[in-house]
Design a protein that fits this description.
about 200 residues; Glutaredoxin; 4 strands
Length: about 200
């Protein structure tokens, strides 16, 4: 087996490209052919898209409905129970496979209940104002230290980073091959700063 690879992924549950990247990484993990550790870090696209310089997702009033915020709170509540990975995958599936609204507390409750969480503690943690400090920390870190602007962004040891958008889900043996190519460019080739495919004009 190859040397263990450690990296961080800045993500937002609302992003379909995060869902595809997570599926790729899960497929590679299931294969057993590659060894890696991931630290999933919160990054709010609602914050990125805000036009108000003085407003933040994490400091907005609890009574405000802020797109994407509840899912981050739920993920951090799961992390406090030492079960982040279980709810993380369940939230991604709920949003992108089942097309459910993660801003709906009932959806988040059902997702957590289906994952076997201590719901009393889960609700207590959701209501704790300090739970959003992890989002604030990760988002600011991503911007200030790595220049993160979108999700998913992978950050490797040594600081190499790459914003990745997969065109479609990848599974099986193809996932390992794609993962290897991604790592070889994103983590090991510092001279390539950006690759972007142009969109071909319509032929109609």
């Amino acid at each position: 087996m190859a040397e263990r690879i450690k990296f961080e992924v800045f993500f937002d549950y609302q992003c379909p490209f995060v869902y595809r990247a997570a599926g790729l990484l899960e497929a590679v993990r299931r294969s057993g052919d590659r060894d890696f550790d991931i630290r999933w870090r919160y990054f709010s696209l609602t914050q990125v898209n805000s036009k108000d310089d003085g407003w933040t997702v994490w400091d907005a009033a609890a009574s405000d409905k802020v797109r994407g915020r509840l899912a981050f709170q739920a993920a951090e509540a799961a992390r406090r129970q030492g079960r982040f990975d279980e709810l993380h995958r369940a939230l991604l599936l709920a949003r992108h496979r089942d097309r459910l609204d993660l801003d709906d507390p009932e959806v988040v409750d059902r997702t957590a209940a289906g994952s076997g969480f201590d719901l009393d503690r889960f609700h207590t943690d959701l209501a704790d104002p300090s739970i959003l400090q992890s989002l604030a920390h990760d988002h600011r870190l991503g911007v200030a230290e790595h220049g993160v602007f979108g999700t998913p962004t992978l950050v490797f040891a040594g600081g190499a980073a790459a914003y990745v958008r997969l065109a479609e889900p990848v599974d099986g043996a193809a996932a390992v091959s794609l993962f290897d190519r991604l790592i070889s460019v994103a983590a090991a080739e510092p001279n390539i700063l950006e690759i972007k495919r142009p969109s071909r004009p319509s032929q109609s």
